[in-house]
Specification:
heterodimer; A: alpha/beta; Urease, subunit C, domain 1; TIM Barrel; 4 domains; eight-stranded mixed sheet; six-stranded antiparallel sheet; 14 helices; B: mainly alpha; 12 helices
Chain lengths: 615, 259
């Protein structure tokens, strides 16, 4: 080798060594760790959940990966090849589900955000204001980031003039005869209704409510089918259920609690292909044997909104005892068990936010109630995912399948063995975006109650030691006709009047007195630390109610406690704990009223109050 | 060399390669024996990174951002000084004329200076990356580490051309000052210290005229921190600059060769 060659070789060797050092060093530099799901720092858009038990809408698949890209599911499989720069979320010990679908809700207030925070990414609304529905329609067509569940809805419902559905303050165009059906359905379709909801409810045997007759219902169902829309029917009795199945209904949006379906009837429903949304949440809330809302509220660290807390704490108005037998819930569950055994299609729905339910939250309770009725975990979850998606034609969701929208729920634990683990939410994605599950609770400044415990001794007339004082309270503010008068002739408050049935069978008749502790009516005052409401009363010997309004914006019926007004002065003590409200301690109003069951009258009444104290 | 040429034979491959090696070695030794050049070139980018990327990093992304821009900042001096100052000095001292009389190909002369710039640039990049990874906790995907190093080092080409243009025209005593006058303001105005979007708008608009801005944007694209302009734009500007600088340089040489 010549000197030149040696020089060149040496230079090449130096150069190569330099390149090796350079490349070696670059190779050894640190790479970012794959991001792990942590609180609000969840990945979005494109990510993968790896090694999870995946419920695909139908069956559980152990140790599967799901890869999400740009808001849609790109792939599902065991040991997927996923590029290294895709964020990974460890799925072992967790179950990944399609976003839940609640097949029976009513949308108002914060319903849609409440739903999605608890994993319900799509709601099938069975009656809401058509204008509200129209305003939400664009959101369901896009994969843009949003903080609400997608809304599909029947819009306005079909009911008789003054019938069930007319009591909520939403204008309803009633249907009066079969001849109206086609035009009514066409108007709903033009308005944007995704299907038709029909009410078959006569209130019997407890109430007398105007209802559509079977001919009109049949005409509405036929008209819906002619427009290519599904027709679902509200029923609360077995006989009505069988009747509308014969009329060609596509689905029943409640299960009935009056009688247990026999095997032949269940088979008839199943063979007709009619689906049932049992809404066991609301049925058991009425009968008082539902899932304890306390068990649901904390689901996976999400916070319940004020509306959710209030509607969960609310109770249905005091119906006559025979109208709310505890057995009603058991009967409903027995019906679901038989329908399921017969092979009928079941959909999970809650009827939230009715009293005793909370949007989103109660769907987790509904899964548990369906399990109580004998559905396996996969069957209960299918009733909340793939089955409603298939029935309502939502082909872009309801399953974890390549191409579908990345509406996903990640849960800690194994749902296959215990569906109640669904409350252990670890993450929720809507359109591939993680959903913020905690919300800032609005905490309005509430003044504390004055130190005095005495509200009124009525020595100086109808006055109070603080607050806006005493006023007449009757059902006239809700369109009723009851009356009341207040006076304080002899150092006590005299309340007299008449409770009469209103025009609507649903108006809950009442009349009496209400006390407002705040500077304006219903403005809440903080009575935290006080334990008991005390007063003296005498009267005509009838039963009355004390109702406590916590001062929220909710239109729901407030908690109430009964008392009687005997002929002689009697002391009454009611622990404040007996008024279950969302915000204990806050009182915006206390009413002392005579009432009657909805649609009934109670006639004239008179009672007196004295020495009213909260101590 | 004289022997080989005198033998009348076409020089062999080994001989030609040796010319390149020797010239490169000579260039590296020249530079290495000029601490006024080596110390700032090697130390300043690392020192500034410690100041602004480690100790005074105002945002969590600052260490990553400065890794790209100080890389660009780091390759400019060896490119500019090697050609600009070196060429001007050799031109005036007559060393260039002497070299022109030898059979050494022009390519060897250019290669040696580009190789020197690459070597110093690679050392700066390596130092920055190690500092970033260890002291500032920067973690990038492997392809990003390599792509960042590749983009930054490819940047020696336009700046060597700029150096050539300066060296061809400027007098030796002025060369250091001119190079510094070009290089430091350009570095700042191109967003190598702080992102251009914090500039007042007229300065933001001014930034696009500097090749350093476009090289920095290409480097920042690797770590998704660029201004979002198309890659083609940056490549086109850098390519056009390179060609323009080479043309300016060639006119300069013609002027020198034709007394």
């Amino acid at each position: 080798m010549s000197g030149s060659e040696r020089t060149v070789m040496r230079a090449v060797a130096y150069g190569a060594a330099a390149v090796v050092v350079f490349v070696g060093t670059l190779t050894a530099l640190p790479e970012p760790a794959a991001p792990e799901a942590q609180g609000d720092a969840l990945p979005e858009g494109s990510f993968a959940v790896v090694g999870a038990t995946v419920f695909d809408g139908e069956t559980f698949r152990a140790d599967h990966d799901v890869w999400v890209e740009d808001g849609r599911i790109r792939a599902i499989g065991a040991a997927l090849e996923i590029p290294a720069d895709v964020s990974r979320i460890e799925g072992s010990g967790r179950t990944l589900l399609p976003g839940l679908i609640d097949a029976h809700v009513h949308t108002f207030g914060t319903t849609l955000n409440d739903a999605v925070r608890f994993g319900v990414t799509t709601v099938l609304d069975q009656f809401t204001d058509p204008a509200l529905a129209a305003s939400k329609r664009a959101a369901r067509e896009t994969l843009a980031r949003g903080d609400e569940a997608d809304l599909f809805t029947a819009g306005m419902l079909a009911t008789a003039d003054g019938g069930h559905g007319t009591q909520f303050g939403i204008p309803v165009e009633a249907v009066s005869a079969p001849a109206d059906a086609a035009a009514w359905v066409a108007a709903r379709k033009a308005e944007g209704s995704d299907w038709i909801k029909i009410v078959y409810e006569d209130g019997s045997p407890y109430m007398d409510i105007p209802s559509l007759d079977p001919e009109t219902i049949g005409a509405l169902i036929a008209a819906a089918h002619a427009e290519g829309l599904l027709a679902v029917v509200h029923v609360s009795k077995l006989a009505h259920a069988l009747e509308v199945v014969d009329l060609g209904a596509d689905g029943l949006v409640h299960v009935w609690g009056d009688a247990v379906v026999d095997d032949a009837q269940a088979a008839q429903i199943a063979e007709a292909g009619v689906f049932v949304v049992p809404t066991l949440s609301v049925v058991t809330a009425m009968s008082g044997d539902g899932i304890d809302p306390e068990l649901l509220q904390g689901a996976g660290g999400a916070t319940a909104s004020r509306m959710q807390r209030e509607t969960l704490a609310n109770r249905f108005p005091d119906l006559p005892d025979e109208a709310r037998p505890a057995a009603r819930g058991e009967t409903a569950i027995a019906n679901v068990r038989r329908l399921h055994a017969a092979g009928a299609r079941l959909l999970a729905g809650t009827d939230a936010p009715n009293p005793g339910t909370g949007a989103g939250i109660s769907q987790h309770g509904e899964l548990q109630l369906l399990a109580r009725a004998g559905l396996g975990s996969a069957e209960a979850l299918a009733a909340a995912t793939a089955t409603p998606a298939a029935i309502f034609g939502l082909e872009d969701r309801g399953r974890i399948e390549a191409g579908r929208i990345a509406d996903l729920v990640l849960v800690d634990g194994d749902l296959e063995s215990d569906v109640s683990a669904s409350t252990s939410l670890a993450a929720v994605w809507k359109d591939g975006y993680p959903v913020a599950r905690s919300i800032d609770q609005e905490t309005p400044e509430v003044p504390a109650a004055p130190a005095t415990t005495l509200i009124s001794d009525f020595e100086e007339g109808v006055g109070a030691s603080f607050g806006a004082g005493w006023q007449v309270s009757t059902d006239q503010i809700r369109g009723g006709a009851s009356t009341a008068e207040l006076s304080a002739p002899q150092g006590a408050l005299r309340v007299e009047g008449e409770v009469v049935a209103g025009d609507s069978a649903f108006t809950f008749p009442w009349a009496g007195a209400i006390y407002f502790p705040g500077p304006a009516p219903m403005q809440p005052v903080d009575f935290s630390g006080r334990e008991v409401l005390r007063f003296r009363t005498r009267g005509d010997g009838r039963g009355y109610l004390v109702m406590l309004f916590s001062g929220g914006a909710s239109t729901a019926v407030p908690p109430s406690v009964p008392f009687t007004a005997p002929a002689d002065w009697t002391d009454v003590e009611i622990p404040l704990a007996r008024f279950p409200t969302a915000t204990p301690g806050l009182i915006g109003g206390l009413s002392f009223v005579a009432t009657a069951p909805p649609g009934a009258s109670a006639g004239a009444f008179a009672f007196e109050l004295d020495d009213v104290e909260i101590r | 060399m004289a022997v080989a040429a005198g033998a009348g034979a076409r020089p062999g491959l080994a001989h030609r390669a040796r010319v390149y090696v020797m010239e490169t070695r000579a260039q590296c030794l020249t530079v290495a024996r000029t601490p006024a050049f080596t110390v700032p070139t090697l130390i300043f980018p690392l020192m500034f990174y410690v100041f602004f990327g480690v100790v005074m990093a105002f945002t969590p992304t600052t260490p990553t951002y400065l890794l790209a821009t100080y890389g660009v900042f780091g390759i400019i001096p060896p490119s500019l000084f090697g050609f600009g100052v070196g060429l001007a000095t050799e031109r005036e001292s007559g060393a260039l004329l002497l070299k022109q009389t030898t059979p050494m190909p022009v390519g060897a002369y250019l290669f040696a200076r580009v190789a020197m710039a690459l070597l110093f640039g690679a050392a700066v990049v390596l130092g920055l990356f190690l500092l970033g990874a260890t002291a500032a906790g920067v973690a990038l995907y492997r392809w990003q580490w390599f792509a960042l190093a590749g983009v930054v080092l490819a940047g020696v080409v336009p700046f060597c051309a700029l150096g050539l243009a300066i060296g061809a025209w400027v007098r030796a005593q002025a060369a250091v000052a001119i190079v510094n006058l070009v290089y430091l303001p350009m570095a700042f105005l191109s967003g190598l210290w702080v992102p251009v979007w914090v500039f007042p708008s007229f300065l933001q608009e001014l930034a696009v005229v500097f090749p350093a801005y476009h090289l920095a944007q290409l480097a920042l694209k690797v770590i998704a921190m660029d201004e979002g302009q198309p890659v083609v734009l940056h490549l086109a500007v850098l390519g056009a600059c390179t060609v323009a600088f080479l043309i300016v340089a060639s006119f300069g040489f013609r002027r020198v060769s034709a007394p």
